[in-house]
Amino acid sequence: MNELIKKTEHYITSLLTEKLPAGMVYHNLEHTRLMVDAVQDLTTHMLFNEWEQEILLVAAWFHDSGYCYTYQGHEAISMTLAGDFCAVWAKKNCLLTR
After folding, report:
1. How far apart are CA 9 and CA 23, in angstroms?
2. Which own/partner contact pairs does 71-78 have at CB distance under 8 Å and 24+ positions apart?
3. CA–CA separation, 95 vs 92, rounded Å?
4. How far is Cα 73 from Cα 83, in angstroms, rounded to an integer?
């Protein structure tokens, strides 16, 4: 696992553990980990290159992160969180510049 994926996993694990409302029984850390595992399996079997896998894995980690802040419109919040995170961490790995 590369450094960006490790940082993403740590960030989302902390975020969901600390800020996800207690009543979220589906869109939670377990669900997120299942989605990440599914993306890993699919991108490996479909022969995506490492850069493409990285993009999709980061997206899988962030896909429901917006639920920490709102139910309605969580998708936009998830995108904002991912964008802010990637602006700091992904430039080092060229995720945003390829």
Report:
1. 22
2. none
3. 8
4. 16
DSSP assigned state of 60? H
Q: Are the C-beta atoms of residues 86 and 76 closer than 8 Å to each other?
A: no
Look up residue 80 and give its amino acid: T
Q: How many Cα atoms within 13 Å fall on the side-chain side of residue 22?
A: 0
pLDDT in tens, 51-77: 899 999 999 999 999 999 999 999 999
Task: Please name which of 63, 66, 57 lies closest in space to residue 3, comparing C-alpha atoms.
Answer: 57
Asked whether 82 and 65 are in contact (CB, 8 A), the reply is yes
Per-residue pLDDT band at 88 (split at 50, 70, 90): confident
CA 56, CA 19: separation in Å to the nearest integer?
Answer: 24
Q: Which amino acid is at 84?
A: D
